[in-house]
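Risk mitigation, structural track. In case the binding assays with pyridoxal-5'-phosphate fail to produce interpretable data, a predicted complex structure has been prepared as a fallback.
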Amino acid sequence: MNDRDYLLLTPGPLTTSDTVKQAMLFDSCTWDEDYNIGVVQAIRARLEALATTTSGYTSVLLQGSGSYAVEAVLGTALGAQDKLLIVSNGAYGARMAEMAALMGIDHHCYDCGETAAPDVTAMEALLLADARISHIALVHCETTTGMLNPLAQVAALAARRGKTLIVDAMSSFGGIPLDVDQLGIDFLISSANKCIQGVPGFAFVIARRSELEKCAGRSRSLSLDLYAQWRCMEDHAGKWRFTSPTHSVLAFAQALRELDLEGGIAARYARYGENQRRLVAGMRALGFDTLLDDGLHSPIITAFYSPQAENYRFGEFYQRLKRQGFVIYPGKVSHSDCFRIGNIGEVYPQDIDRLLDAVSRAMYWQH
Ligand SMILES: *Cc1c(COP(=O)(O)O)cnc(C)c1O
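Fallback model:
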């Protein structure tokens, strides 16, 4: 095995299939209909079909990483009089609060701590106390800790109180079944290089058409104007306003075909779940503890406490795993010393078994 031949156990970019990588070996013409209609419009339709079985939703693709699309949604969906309630229990919720502050968007950050799920009763009290709150933003899977936030409960609250719901489903869409219409999600954000298993380069938004239609002229930014991007794709059959990441888009089209071949989102969810359960059971058998209680875990990524041994260093552990063909992720939790292991991408239960062997050999602090 050469040095570059390793499996990414990270929350994206992640290990993609050879066929997804090979799909990029073509230079598309961005005004030709082979690309705009044949690839871009087909992707949009497929994303809408994956997100819901009913009509009333549309989709927009946007250049950049996932954060660009989050910023585009916040900056485009909220009008000057609107106020946003941000649920924050990790780095991605905190990033939304930072974006809102920078764009001068009126907001309240409900911080429930990194290892606790949001309390929907407390959120309802916040809504009742401040009638100006018009929108709620929630991270579905908080990749910082691996926590799966209670989307159905928050969605029911938004519906009950008539609030517009924005969901950062970056690390869950394509890997966890959901229906945007049944849940009443107005804007759902995800990106190419997470559970759809494409390569980095763009993000996408599934939006309730009637909500997006209200957003003309609201954007705080030119290039992150989600409405203008959408109009361009609608009016010019899949055309991007500015240079399109053509190779990433081709890879994504292939990744969507492979999602179908796997058996769709339900089958992928089952695989990720199996990966995660095997990982946690195996790591516990080796003496590691998870940061979160089992009831809070997502099948996407898991945070483990670092060993308490004097001579443990993440860097050394990381290198020893990398030499055996696995790349893991450092922790991102502010108050606890952790590392993280993801199980999304081209990662299968037998890979997790091999990883567990590699971990047992890499535990130098015990030898
Ligand atoms: C990956 C991710 C993002 C976006 O991060 P980028 O580095 O901008 O791609 C946002 N939210 C969550 C929950 C994520 O996992």
